[in-house]
Please model this.
Amino acid sequence: MLYFRVLNTLMKVLVCLNIPDVGVTLMKKAGLEVTKWTNDLPMTATEFNNEAKKHDVLLSTSNYIIDRDFLSENSHLQMISQFAVGYDNIDISAAKSLNILVGNAPNAMTDATADIAFGLMLATSRKMFFMHKTIIDDNWGHFKPRANLGLELKNKTVGIFGLGTIGLEFAKRCKGAYNMEVIYCNRTPNTKAEKELNAKKVSFNELLERSDVLSLHCALTEETNNKFDATTFKKMKSSALFINTSRGGVHNETDLINALNEKEIWGAGLDVTNPEPMHKNNPLLQMENVSVLPHIGSTTVEARDRMSVYAAQNLIAFYKGENIPYQIS
Model:
């Protein structure tokens, strides 16, 4: 859908965090007036609200809560372009009711996030994070034939909850490296995965029961919030690895800790936690069969540059009255 603006009318953009300059440069070349928050720390809620009032559009990040109250107070905003694929920090319904368009930056971090999921799977299966700590703690010790044993991944079954673009790239890595059987649970079939990887669509219960590795690649919605809780962990194999690089809210962290302690599942690899940031005393950080990262799925030079470009392209297209390439609503 086209949204027409009067060309040559100045459009003021607030870039809400210190993102890579490549997207900022594109916007300036297109004639937009750009103000970028250059501090490493995000704005406070008050600062964000005050700055938003001075601008026409936002290039925002997931650091900011853009709820109905914020949007009602800033109903003059014409568009919000999210520097991320996820946008659960934005009240889409409220934005739509106020005719504020919303866009995001999908597929910018596909390979980067798939790599993190694959890395967490491998690190967890061999207890790499924990074993690294034994060196730091001067506890290398002598050879123990039955201590700290990990699991091999070759020819195992990987289950994917939410087999979209990132999930597919993760599945390709699993298939190529370890010849893993791929099963998945989606609302709709992924014919590309079925053709290229012989992936099989299964029910949610079958996904839980059959997966040697269960990896989450879904959005955080009302349906997926706390989807993986005590009930679901009990249905998984006691030898299963649980990997989450989607959103922390998809799993119940207390239930996950209990499942690991009760040996209902074998291990967990997390790039997202619930809540974020994770407290330094969280028991997950001390478990030998758990690997935790501080939400670094998109942390590559290439991915962050693409995110900057895609978010900027949304605003440039809107300014020019062209189709917005990555529009959500």
